[in-house]
């Protein structure tokens, strides 16, 4: 049995199995115990890896700071990060590198970063989704051969690989406008990060080009996860229905987690999708395809992001005094959660 098969048995990612078997932080105690129990039952043992610095012991480190904003302790179970990690692992394998996982709680920053500094690898992929520029700058000073994934700060001389968030949200806004939707709603994350700010900027730009505006009362903020946002969102949408103003015929949601919650909340309020309301998400996580109807969304090229991050670290470019900022375009995925307004046909 290999690690991938063990991960499937435990219902977790390969990264979670690696963390559990190596005794590293980054997963919950219940998850760790379940993985170890299953591994013991099937007789699985972790093959000893060559330590960094030994002959042919090439490795990259995937570094995450958890329990701050969108990135939780069990981040690897969140659909977007789970898919991204899978592609990073595959690319490392193709390049002949072992991928090591390190998760540091934000309130243990100094201790955690010192540990990583003492455990040398050939390069570090830092998940920057939830990090501010000042924190990234400090990490870059301490850890050479660094690529930051899923955010970007233009003023920092650091390698970044990010999504073209502006483009994706612009595509969504243009699509809804061309379907004839003029009464639009915007479901935002309460937790503000670079990605969400860029998405809002792109969507509003598309609105402006089509001479449309979003009423401030139609902009709703909720927690950005599927399981915590549905209840609060339902109540906010109920108030929006009862305020005497025209209810939006379409909603753009800043991520698929929020879009899935929006679809569920609207259904609980007696509204049908897309007959009564259209919904668009962002990220194109696998779960967007198992809904009824399937979610119209913005596809993020997670595989391309992973490939660029690994390739930057395994090429000579990281030794250059000039850093690179790579922005990967999105694709719009038209599915069944949106419809053209009859009056616009």
| Helix fraction bin | 40-55%
CATH architecture of the largest domain: 3-Layer(aba) Sandwich
Order of secondary-structure elements: HHHEHEHEHEEHEHEHEHEEHEE
CATH topology of the largest domain: Rossmann fold
Please state the average pLDDT score. Answer: 87
CATH homologous superfamily annotation of the largest domain: Response regulator
> What count of domains describes the coordinates?
2
The end-to-end distance, rounded to whole angstroms, is 57 Å
What is the class of the largest domain in the CATH system?
Answer: Alpha Beta
For the sheet with most strands, the description reads: 6 strands, parallel
The total beta strand count reads 12
Low-confidence stretches: 48-55
* Residue share in β-strands: 15-25%
Explain this structure.
This protein is of the alpha/beta class and 345 residues long. The chain folds into 2 domains: 3-161 and 302-327, Response regulator (Rossmann fold), CATH 3.40.50; 165-299 and 332-344, Rossmann fold (3-Layer(aba) Sandwich). It is built from 11 helices and 12 strands. It has helices at 3-10, 14-22, 29-42, 79-95, 109-118, 133-142, 165-178, 194-209, 226-241, 256-268, 302-313, and strands at residues 59-66, 98-105, 124-127, 146-149, 159-163, 184-189, 219-222, 250-253, 278-280, 297-299, 325-328, 331-333. The strands form 3 sheets. The chain has a 6-stranded parallel β-sheet with strand order 2-1-3-4-5-11, with helices on both faces. Strands 7-6-8-9 form a 4-stranded parallel β-sheet, with helices on both faces. A two-stranded antiparallel sheet has the order 10-12. Helix 9 (226-241) packs across helix 10 (256-268). The protein is globular, with a radius of gyration of 22 Å. The model is unreliable at 48-55 (pLDDT under 50).
């Amino acid at each position: 049995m290999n690690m991938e098969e063990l991960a499937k048995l435990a219902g977790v990612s390969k990264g979670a199995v690696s963390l559990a078997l190596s005794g590293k932080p980054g997963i919950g105690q219940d998850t760790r115990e379940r993985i170890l129990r299953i591994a013991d039952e099937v007789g699985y043992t972790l093959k000893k890896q060559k330590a960094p610095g030994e002959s042919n012991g090439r490795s990259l480190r995937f570094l995450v700071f958890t329990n701050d904003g969108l990135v939780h302790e069990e981040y690897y179970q969140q659909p977007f990060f789970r898919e991204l990690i899978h592609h990073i692992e595959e690319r490392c394998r193709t390049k002949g590198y072992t991928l090591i996982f390190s998760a540091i709680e934000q309130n243990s920053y100094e201790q955690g970063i010192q540990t990583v500094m003492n455990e040398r690898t050939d390069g570090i992929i830092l998940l920057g989704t939830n990090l501010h520029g000042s924190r990234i700058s400090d990490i870059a000073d301490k850890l050479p051969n660094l690529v930051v994934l899923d955010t970007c700060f233009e003023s920092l001389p650091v390698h970044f690989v990010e999504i073209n968030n502006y483009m994706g949200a612009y595509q969504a806004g243009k699509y809804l406008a061309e379907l004839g939707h003029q009464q639009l709603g915007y479901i935002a994350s309460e937790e503000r990060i670079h990605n969400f700010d860029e998405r809002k900027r792109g969507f509003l730009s598309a609105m402006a080009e089509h001479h449309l505006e979003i009423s401030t009362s139609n902009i709703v903020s909720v927690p950005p996860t599927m399981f915590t946002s549905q209840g609060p969102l339902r109540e906010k949408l109920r108030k929006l229905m009862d305020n005497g103003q025209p209810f939006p015929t379409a909603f753009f949601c800043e991520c698929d987690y929020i879009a899935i919650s929006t679809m569920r909340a609207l259904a609980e309020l007696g509204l049908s999708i897309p007959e009564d309301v259209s919904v668009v998400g962002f990220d194109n996580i696998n779960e967007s395809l198992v809904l009824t109807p399937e979610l119209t969304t913005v596809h993020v090229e997670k595989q391309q992001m992973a490939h660029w991050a690994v390739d930057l670290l395994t090429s000579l470019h990281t030794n250059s005094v000039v850093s690179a900022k790579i922005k990967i375009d999105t694709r719009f995925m038209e599915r069944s959660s949106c419809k053209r307004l009859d009056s616009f046909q």
